[in-house]
């Protein structure tokens, strides 16, 4: 059986979630009451029986490293293979690489030493649940040099304007990669490539002074390589703005949407924290909400997402909001269309109201 290795390339991802990325990279942003965004990327790889995974991290990665640790939550704390968190390390005086090619160049040993025949390269901003072995099988059958994974979306939300789109012919070959706002074939920032070809493309890009591997090594060689497409049929959430984060988070309150992301056969793993079950007082009223462990609720919670250890005081009202770890909403406070980052306190009787299209965001550790 052909083996796969994985690279999660965070190098080119921008920290575009405003207050949520003041102190962390986007991959470390909390999502869905218990998880971080990178959990979905790693879980997809491990559920595809990939045992060797590298994470290319350049900026604000302390929170990311704290969360991932040695990869135990994903069964990646192993003697052979496992999880490799690879921050910048530019110690080669002969290095002429630029951009994310610096990461590929300075960590080329990961590619050379892996026993895998193929490499899956993905990011963290696309949330989905996939078995990459199906894409690999399509890659081999088509005899492709590179296989790009895409989703034909029904509705073009604003966040897709920043995404690459694919033109795909009747044989599954990619004939165009562009930013056409009307094209519904959204590239999911994930592709499969044979290990030796990846090495060759990296060397070629560096020799020609390139700075972005996908743009220059793949998109720029569209007419030279056999680049094919694999269509993903499941649920996709692209998070590259506060608005898309808020909308895709609240979409999880829809049972069908939730179950397509969190599949029993392909679970999403995260760092384990042993906490007591949530406590609901006799005065509490919680409807259509996602509530993690360790919460203490005395007030009214509606259409909201509560992370671990959240406290909602008596008489407080929380609607259409996302409340992250260890926040406290004191009595008689009112929150609507609000995102609270970790360890925030909303004082007694305080009212914060945002709009569904522009939620009110409070940075971590603030008291209001």
From TrEMBL:
CDD domains: ADP_Glucose_PP, LbH_G1P_AT_C. Residues 284-351 form the Glucose-1-phosphate adenylyltransferase/Bifunctional protein GlmU-like C-terminal hexapeptide domain. Its EC number is 2.7.7.27. It holds the Pfam family Hexapep_GlmU. It is an enzyme of class 2 (transferase). Coiled coil: none annotated. Keywords: Glycogen biosynthesis, Nucleotidyltransferase, Transferase. GO terms for molecular function: glucose-1-phosphate adenylyltransferase activity. Residues 20-154 form the Nucleotidyl transferase domain. Belongs to the bacterial/plant glucose-1-phosphate adenylyltransferase family. This is Glucose-1-phosphate adenylyltransferase subunit GlgD. It comes from Halobacillus salinarum. The gene is glgD.
């Amino acid at each position: 059986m052909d083996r796969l290795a994985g690279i999660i390339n965070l190098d080119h991802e921008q920290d575009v979630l405003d207050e949520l990325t003041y102190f962390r990279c986007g991959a470390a942003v909390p999502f869905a009451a218990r998880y971080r965004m990178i959990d979905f990327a790693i879980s997809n790889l491990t559920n595809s029986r990939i045992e060797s995974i590298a994470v290319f991290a350049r900026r604000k990665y302390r929170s990311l490293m704290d969360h991932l640790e040695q990869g135990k939550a994903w069964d990646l704390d192993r003697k052979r293979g496992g999880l490799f968190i690879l921050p910048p390390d530019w110690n080669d005086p002969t290095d002429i690489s630029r951009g994310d090619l610096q990461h590929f160049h300075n960590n080329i040993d990961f590619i050379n030493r892996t026993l895998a025949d193929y490499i899956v390269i993905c990011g963290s901003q696309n949330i989905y649940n996939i078995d990459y072995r199906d894409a690999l099988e399509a890659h081999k059958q088509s005899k492709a040099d590179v296989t790009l994974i895409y989703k034909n979306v029904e509705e073009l939300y604003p966040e897709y304007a920043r995404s690459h789109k694919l033109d795909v012919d009747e044989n599954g070959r990619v004939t165009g990669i562009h930013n056409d706002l009307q094209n519904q074939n959204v590239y999911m920032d994930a592709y499969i490539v044979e290990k030796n070809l990846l090495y060759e493309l990296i060397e070629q890009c560096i020799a020609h002074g390139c700075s972005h591997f996908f743009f220059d090594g793949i998109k720029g060689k569209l007419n030279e390589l056999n680049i094919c497409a694999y269509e993903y049929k499941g649920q996709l959430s692209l998070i590259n703005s506060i608005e898309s984060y808020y909308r895709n988070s609240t979409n999880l309150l829809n049972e069908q949407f939730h179950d397509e992301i969190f599949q029993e056969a392909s679970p999403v793993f995260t760092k384990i924290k042993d906490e007591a079950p949530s406590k609901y007082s006799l005065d509490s009223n919680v409807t259509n909400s996602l509530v993690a462990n360790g919460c203490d609720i005395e007030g009214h919670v509606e259409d909201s997402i509560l992370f671990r250890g959240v406290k909602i005081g008596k008489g407080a009202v929380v609607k259409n909001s996302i409340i992250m770890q260890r926040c406290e909403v004191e009595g008689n406070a009112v929150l609507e269309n609000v995102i609270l980052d970790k360890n925030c306190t909303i004082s007694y009787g305080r009212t914060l109201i945002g709009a569904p299209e522009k939620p009110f965001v409070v940075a971590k550790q603030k008291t209001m």
